[in-house]
Task: structure prediction
Amino acid sequence: MWKITLCCNVLLLFLLWLISWVVITPISNLLVQYTETQMPLPILTNFAIRIISLTGFVPLSWGGLTLVFGLWLRGKESQSRHQWLLLHLSATLCMGLAILFFFALAAILPILKFGAILL
Result:
């Protein structure tokens, strides 16, 4: 059961990364590729558009680290394993939500009025 939990954690991080990709794509299409507006992009939005493909390595590397972590967990007793699984879930959620928050903020900044201040 704990192995399934580790796999679900990796899939959760991948899902949050994928949602981040979906959030930033419309801003990239509207304001970069089609340039229908003359409004310059905030620095954070430019940075997010440039690094979205590079952040794909985060779920992949987390999957590899989870595999190593799973091999290490095999030798642990049940109570200790449960605590380590909770720590792994917490780390997964923190990383995934941080990525999602960053890209959601970068996608919203061009729309908000104070986004122009952050140029």
